[in-house]
Write a structure and sequence with these properties.
Blueprint lengths: L1 H6 L8 E5 L5 E5 L7 E10 L3 E10 L1 E3 L3 E4 L4 E4 L3 E5 L2 E5 L1 E3 L3 E5 L9 E3 L18 E7 L2 H16 L5 E4 L5 E5 L2 H15 L3 E4 L6 E4 L3 E9 L6 E11 L5 E5 L11 H14 L10 E9 L7 H16 L4 E14 L4 H10 L3 E8 L2 E9 L6 H8 L5 E11 L2 H20 L1
Parallel strand pairs: 20-21
Antiparallel strand pairs: 1-2, 3-4, 3-12, 4-11, 5-10, 6-7, 6-12, 8-9, 8-11, 13-15, 13-16, 14-15, 17-22, 18-19, 19-21, 22-24, 22-25, 23-24
Length: 427
């Protein structure tokens, strides 16, 4: 009962509300049913019968149903529908909501969680934004069946409207990734997608966004010749491949004497870039190298852009294997906030994840560890950190750089790719 008194005060006890006015100035408005309207949108749900249901609390003023309102955060008008009081699953229609009251509105078009509603544009005020925890557990998702694929996009969009502490992104490896607060959160979201929106998903560990690069320099020859009835195909190129640290993929040409006509240069560049995107070692993008076309030959009838594209692709794939190819992995800068009693356990766990502690600090009585950890070791860290710290530890991770993958791990990644290719060829 003491907790209810402390955490759920009566609206009558709140004398003023802090807001930002149209000029960006912070002001305090007295809480009154007669004052300017300031309404907080604190939750959005998808009701199977009513549709989109927006939960609101009137901070000050009086909100009337079936009247225009102004969304102060998005700077757009919004028409209020019927106002509802919610009693569990029961809904009671009311004409207005007064300061301190909580209710809901159906089928608002632009308003989302965290927005502020005012009466008019001239009397617009904005409440401080709601703070949501940053989702840290990452899982790759895909539809369970072909039927689920058609529903999944819309279902995810509607689910994210009512779940601001989750995000869906497209990773560098092309996978659709769901970021959430933990295993239980993923399970709840998956169940909700299936039950409310009719889209079943499968979750799995995401692929690491590895990159391939080279450490050496070589000259490589690619020759493509195919004879069929009528015109054949002929392309012949020599390219020089060398490292280009931090420069991505660079293509240049230095052909003397017209051994490769200029109109085939775009085909050669396309072949180099497409082969680099597919990767050579383990199917990951090849980056930070320069390819220079310096010689070749052509046939006056059979040569075309496609022939030179294929020849350039062959030359790159062969040449990369001679250039000390290396696999690189993303290294994340991680900030971990924990109570001091868990320092030893967390540091030991970081060492087991190939992590390197960069520094320690104190913030509001909590210890903050800054460390460098490979992304491959972090996909399940949200769950394991929670387990290590009794639910009291949190972390954030941002991409810092790419580093060479240790040899024993690189061999495993390359072997997995080789097996996938063999299985694809058999199919």
């Amino acid at each position: 009962m003491n907790a209810i008194v402390h955490y759920l005060p009566s609206p009558a006890e709140e004398t003023e509300v802090a807001v930002t006015d149209a000029k960006g100035k912070e002001v305090k408005l007295p809480v009154s049913t007669d004052g300017p309207l300031v309404t907080r949108v604190f939750k959005t749900t998808a009701d199977p019968f009513v549709g989109r249901l927006t939960f609101i609390r009137v901070m000050t003023g009086t909100l009337h149903g079936q009247t225009p309102a102004w969304n102060s955060k998005r700077n757009e008008p919004e028409r209020m529908g019927q106002l509802l009081l919610l009693h569990g699953k029961e809904q009671e229609t009311v004409g207005e909501l007064h300061a301190g009251e909580i209710g809901a509105v159906a089928k608002l078009t632009i308003t989302g969680t965290g927005d502020t509603l005012s009466a008019t544009k001239e009397t617009a005020y904005v409440l401080p934004p709601l703070a949501f925890p940053i989702p840290t557990l990452m899982v790759a998702i895909e539809p369970q069946t072909k039927a689920d694929l058609d529903k999944m996009g819309t279902a995810l969009q509607r689910m994210l409207e009512e779940e601001p502490s989750a995000r869906v992104e497209r990773s560098e490896t092309g996978e659709q990734v769901l970021l959430s607060m933990g295993d239980a959160h993923v399970a709840v979201l998956g169940e909700r997608l299936k039950r409310k929106f009719g889209a079943a998903i499968i979750t799995k560990t995401p692929r690491v966004a590895y990159k391939e690069t080279i450490r050496g320099k070589t000259q490589s020859h690619g020759r493509y010749k195919k004879q069929t009835g009528g015109h054949g195909m002929f392309g012949d190129v020599w390219i020089e491949i060398e490292p280009n640290h931090g420069g991505g993929v660079e293509f240049a040409e230095h052909v003397v004497g017209g051994t490769v006509p200029k109109n085939f240069f775009p085909g050669v560049e396309k072949g180099v870039r497409e082969a680099a995107a597919e990767g050579v070692l383990a199917g990951y993008p090849l980056s930070d190298f320069k390819a220079t076309l310096y010689d070749g030959s052509f046939h006056p009838v059979d040569s075309n852009e496609l022939s030179f594209k294929i020849a350039a692709s062959m030359a790159l794939k062969q040449g990369v294997l001679e250039c000390k190819p290396a696999l690189m992995e993303p290294i994340m800068t991680v900030q971990i906030t924990i109570p001091e009693i868990y320092m030893g356990d967390v540091n030991r766990d970081l060492n087991g994840r190939r992590g390197r502690v960069l520094g320690m600090d104190t913030n509001n009585g909590m210890q903050v560890i800054t460390a460098s950890v490979p992304q491959a070791e972090l996909f399940t860290y949200a769950t394991e950190l929670r387990s290590l710290t009794g639910g009291r530890g949190t972390f954030t991770a941002t991409l810092d750089r790419y580093e060479d993958v240790p040899q024993h791990i690189a061999e495993k990644v390359i072997e997995v790719h080789r097996k996938e290719q063999e299985a694809a060829h058999k199919e």
